[in-house]
Amino acid sequence: MIGEHLPALQVVVPLVAAPLIVLARRGAAAWLIATIASFVSLAIALALFVEVREAGVVSYALGSWAPPWGIEYRIDAANSVVLVLVALLASFVAPYAWRSAAFEVPEDQHYLCYAMFCLCLAGLLGIAITGDAFNLFVFLEISSLSSYVLIALGRDRRALLSAYQYLIVGTIGATFYVIGVGLLYLETGTLNIADLAARVAEVGTERPVLAALAFITVGLSLKLALFPLHFWLPNAYAYAPSIVSAFLAGTATKVSIYALLRFYFSVFGAHELFEVLPMGAILLALSVAAMMLASLGAVFQDNLKHMLAYSSVGQIGYITFGISLANQPALTGSVVHLVNHGVTKTALFLLAGAVAFRVRSVRFERLGGLARAMPLTCAGIVAGGFSLIGVPGTAGFVSKWYFVLGALEAGSWSMAFLPVVSSLIALWYMWRFVEVAYFRAPGPALAGVKEAPPALLVPSLALIAVTVFFGLDAPLTVGAAAQAAQVLLGGIR
Amino acid sequence: MVDALHPGVLLIVGGVLAGALRGRLRAGLVLAAPLAALAALWALPEGRLWTGEFLGLPVAPLAVDRLSRLFATIFGLMAFGGALFALAQSSRLEVAAALVYAGAAVGVTLAGDLVTVFVFWELMAIGSTLVIWSAGTAGARAASFRYLMVHLFGGVVLMAGIAGHVAATGSTEFDRMALDSPTHWLILAGFLVNAGAPPLSAWLPDAYPEASWSGTVFLSAFTTKTAVYVLMRGFPGTELLVWVGLFMVFYGIVYALLENDMRRILAYSIVNQVGFMVTGIGIGTEMALNGAAAHAFTHIVYKALLLMSAGAVLYRTGERLCSNLGGLFQSMPLTTICGTIGALSISAFPLTSGFVSKSMIGQAAADGHLAAVWFLLAAASAGVFLHAGIKFPWFVFFQKDSGLRPPDPPLSMRLAMVLFAALCIGLGVFFRPLYALLPFPVEYVPYTAPHVVEMLQLLLFSGLAFFVMLGWLKRTRTITLDTDWAYRRLGPALAAGGAAALAALTDALERLGRWALARAIARAAAAFDDAGALARTRSTGTMVTWVALLLAAYLILYYL
Lengths: 493, 560
What we know:
The structure holds two protein chains of two kinds. Chain A is mainly α. Chain A has 20 helices and two strands. In chain A, α3 (77-104) packs parallel to α14 and α12 runs parallel beside α18 (413-439). A two-stranded antiparallel sheet of chain B has the order 1-2. In chain B, a hairpin with a 2-residue loop joins β1 (47-54) and β2. Chains A and B meet through α6, α8, α9, α12 and α17 of A and α5, α6, α19 and α20 of B.
């Protein structure tokens, strides 16, 4: 009975948790509800993942209105992975939030923080699960609005400016998206994504369709922080509370990438546009710029969270690089990196949060000799760094391998070197952390600093362990990613 | 299917555990792990023992044949000797990292497929970087970063090559490859980076001497010799390697002669010796490959011995420059004897291990009628004697009296040195067991009268040359020799002149490169830091402008 309503519950559970939290008000109760909602979401996501593996596609008609008229939740190999990723990261962030949020967020705002966290989770899961283009917009707005609030909760006063900037840019992005969807609706008369795919192909290269593609591409590129539309991201991640940067870094951009994948491959894939237009070429150029320039940007930051944020922009470049190549191994790489990078970056931001918890700063000038005071935290950051670099035995290596294969499949030797050169830049910026934490003599800022409490350390290091696990037991993630790539590529003629 | 122990994994596990333990338990473990690995290795039958799948590719992480057993054996021995020597080392990280490093090297030799090779290859880079790093000095940290950069770059090239190979052939098998496609060139380039081949040879003498007194001993053995191993398996008989090898031979000699730091002399000498092996692989006959394999085996032993004696001196005196050392034989007799045995071995003195291995490569060149190669190798032998055979022990242990009177090092270090010195002599006298381990059947007999006489003449006269020019070594490097022997000396002299010019040129280029790099980094920093064009905090208006621009770009492109 409950089983058949799992797709709806996936979104409803965190969505209902939010008002419950507001009613409960008390910090501890709020945390408990948010954590339980995250765990339940994860259980549902896993159940759906298993179901999709057996059934192929799970379609759920919301309110029993049959698609394409009603809203359809449609789960296939591609978005089941994203659902698991989002719920998984939420389940690691929520337990961590107990100590971290207590420290970073004023007490009277705790319940708001947790309520927004649940709303954001619901929005992100909704984007991933829905099969309706307009419904996707609604969830995009839910997740965005809640994340503006979450970022603004940061204690640093610059958090407010960052949230404001993200709000402006994010709203433009969402508006562009909805303009694009509107144009498509005008041309085809449908909002169901599967139905859109079939009808767009019949419409041909009319101008509204072209404009729709442009608006949707730019709108989603903003949300996923594609270079050079990433300017909002570093400050938003750096000044937000630690749990927020950790959660958003692993999920928000990744879900937007999933939406882009859906439109590129499932909706427009069957359209002749895809062959006529230089979409791949533009995306490729921007991805390469991200992989190189944004990664270089990370090298020269003087703040751990800023460095991680720029690194995120660079790593997103990897993912879009794979999308632009649009072949089986490259797209497998993109999907698997979506997961691997989400896990790795969330883990790293959690550890950075642990540093902030003890040192009360993440500026490199105050972190000299940190490894002596916080050995486990630093070891975790280095291990996560290995994954960013792509050392064998970590998740990052698996993705890098598929990007190289994808570039070779596309017949380009020079492109095979791009991800690996970028990984050398990653080595460079991670080395800066190593140099600061391990080689400098401890400064006065570290006086009395101890290892982070287990409440912070256990979830972060557990997530680092997941990173390593995904690197060693690659078939688990790669298998799912390969299926996802197959589904997506199946949309192309 | 897993029904056999992997010696490399044993070493790695031992290393990780050693990092966590202290005191006697730790000492016992670091000595037991290599012995256990050796025992496990010799219990393995030949064949592909572990097979499985990684990233959807068939892999064989444990595959044994004669060649891999030979290299794994010497790596295991080396890990044991190094760990024994390093017992007095106070850094807890170093030996732990060294065991992981050794285990990864064993892993490369026992890998039945390219993917496994790559995984252990990268692990080796990390392990060795940690070994350098654990010396704890600022110089070592900087060097370890440069070292890691070079090796990860090499790894990147190798990975691209392997990925291409797998994509093109669908096979991960690690087999002989011809230089017929860019993939194989990339794989070769990746291998050669680790061998210390030009143009990246400089990483080796740059990084190795920065490690601690015991760290350098480990470093000397694994990275370059795994490169020799993979070259031997992947690219035997590739003519290019003959010339690459010869270049390395002379590069090492020239720089070692010009060098004053005792461990840098020995580091350049590693490049030189690996050059002999690479040349042998390039020649590619059974005799040459046997020679290269045997030389790798003996070289690990005597180079470790030399670096142990240098390490003992460093441990006791804290001095690393030849010009500040000298006269140590009076108070460090055992170290002097062991260092001298190492020096004689590297010079291929009869009755030492170098003699029975190096001569095989020369013989292979002669058998293949490669006159130029044979001539250059013979000439280089004289050069080796000059820089490593005499220069090192003379300046460190004898020469003028520096006034230093340090005692011999602690027992564990003495034991390690004696063990390896005994191996040097033992392999030189009883060479049959070594020959029996070589990949191909050996009919070669090293101790024939003409060969011994020729070698002694070569060595005595280059020894004479050294002492003749000792007084004015700084002023001039011209040497007059009897016409009879001119060809023995002319070769190295000519080659040395050419190589010195080349060295000056590469030096200048390197300086220019460093300057340009420093400028580029400064500029990049300006562009990327908080206030720079690419990373400063943007006003909301700027962001929105970018959005508008990109949308316009898309629309225009679509409508065109």
